[in-house]
Queue: 3 jobs
Job 1
Amino acid sequence: MVDFAGWQTPVQYTSVIAEHEAVRGHAGLFDVSHMGEIEIRGPKALEVSNQLISNDLVRIKDQQALYAALLNERGGFVDDVVTYRFSPERIFICVNASNRDKDFAWIQKHSKGVDVLNRSDEFAQLAFQGPLAPTILQRLTPVDLSKIATYHFTEGEVAGVRCIISRTGYTGEDGFELYCDPASAERLWFAILEEGRAEGVQPAGLGARDSLRTEMKYALYGNDIDDDHTPLEAGLGWIVKLDKGPFTGREALLRQKAEGVRRKLIGFELTGAGIPRHGYSLSKERTPIGEVTSGTQGPSVKKAIGIGYVKAELSPEGSTFDVDIRGRPVPAKVVKTPFWKRS
């Protein structure tokens, strides 16, 4: 257990590799109740929310969700979020644990004519991920999960617990995020574990969550994205809809797009011995070109992999550079991402 954003959170229950492999091969259950939930309500909720985020809520229907960014005036990340459209009068935003108070203050500051509610303490959140997760979860709910497409959601009971059931995830596997009353979370947790025990379901901690998302090149706020990096630099231009109208950070991104980005977030693998870690420097012919933002020995890909920012001219697939591992230059090359793809 470690302290994370004021929460006691599990890094691992058994081992990171065992939990990682359980999610890839069967299913794993994560307690991510530290995440924050902010709700925007009122007749102008859709309009106001759409001016806060980079993606476009108008293009989707009720009971759909979007991955998006809250951006500062320079186009940098205030946070990356999942935004749920319950109705034009009710928008629900899941934010990162370390940013929940900051995000709430930022949203309040940039919102007029709506009610902004910090509901973070009203929800626990469980993430049930893996190829067997839909089958196992279906046995616990009368809701037809096959009718919930990716990045869609509904409300219903799971193991007798009222939940928001969202088909989203952070592992590269199929699965669901379940939002429920904190008082019912323990009952829901053990019901899922018991139902899937014979099929290899395991509880999984933050260690496996990190290795799973790194294999997918999913960005982690504070490591791969922050207020000094933009979605265009992070390879997340697809969550930016510049043609939808005004939103915070739009003008900065329009300028950056016109001028061209000078650095890009790339995925790489080592071609020498070692494991890249956050903060290690990257160099080309002994000249610094960037740094590692995330890195690990990928349990599924069986390779030492990393994510990092490099100068734009070194971002094409096949480009080579060195990773400084404790004073030793280790060769690496840019590769296509995600690192992991299910066959």
Job 2
Amino acid sequence: MQSISLIWGLLSLFGMMIGFVPFYGALNWLLIPFAGIGAVVSAIALGTAPAEAGKGKGLAGLIGCGIAAIFGFIRLIVGFGIV
């Protein structure tokens, strides 16, 4: 499950980078909910991981989704939600 959260976080960050390109800012309307679901999946992965196993992938996924959601929201504000 931690690998899924890492992949989800990477996809969110990739979508965030595409959303920063001019005229692709509306993509952030899809990115923010995608990153939110990824953050929930990452939190579940962190909570269910055994203590002996490393929690790095789950934590990286959670941080990636959080960064993507925050910067996507900022991009929506700057671009007035359209551009």
Job 3
Amino acid sequence: MSEEKSKVLAVGAHPDDIEFFFAGTLAKLRELHPVRHKTSNGVHRDAARIYMLTICNGTMGSEELDWRELRETRWKEAQESAALIGAHYESCDIWDLELDLDRHKAKDILVGQIRQIKPDIVLTHTPKDNYMPDHRVTSFIVSDALFCAMLPNYNPGRRTSEIRTRREIESNSEGYRYKRRKSLPLPALYYGDPFPGFDMFGEEQKPTFLVDITSTMKVKREMLLKHKSQGAWLKAGHRDSDYIRTAMEWNKKRGKLVGVEFAEAIFAHKGTPYNQEPRLENLLGDSVKYIESK
């Protein structure tokens, strides 16, 4: 992988979810693998390509804005956040809290994206997330889409007539169109923390490893700050007066587990059929920290 461009796809349920769970890690990847570097033959190429995709459009997260205003606001905020680390942002544009009803459509749009991007590494919500339904459904949709994308005979257009993302629709792009090809190798799959670090039964979850994000916590904060509409919503709807402080306290607590100031927890999917190479760990190098066994 060191000689190839690594493609990292982070999938969240809503705009700002990726930032809460993975922004520090994605920023660390960008820090360690700058957008442009010179290869042995003198050609400038990307060291790591980062893709951020949200399944839902975030239309339920406001007390002030109606769904039309909020859809546009959150689309703009997410693009501005992704731009801070040179990532490409997309959305399946599924309505909030209707994801379980539209899971086949979301899965098929995602299959198209996976086949076009061909990611080496995928990051998404843990299936143990107990915060809200869209998070849990997203985890299973990502896993399903990865498996379906691998199958040459799986045609997402058979069930869903429109399998384009929001950007593809608005740019009049044809987007993905099914053509039978050889099997697509499955990437390494990773999950983020169940917020706030334990499952619905209060059981603390021990991550596979943690990522030292001390040097990129400032970037994470800037990415979260782009989601101004969510700052207002979390304050009004969840009585969280400062969502930035909440994120920093959470990452500080995780950092204490491995003796660093700030860290994000990562859980690797173990077992078939996903790639078992430590791909993310290799890219992150010394930033990867393990909890010492007692």
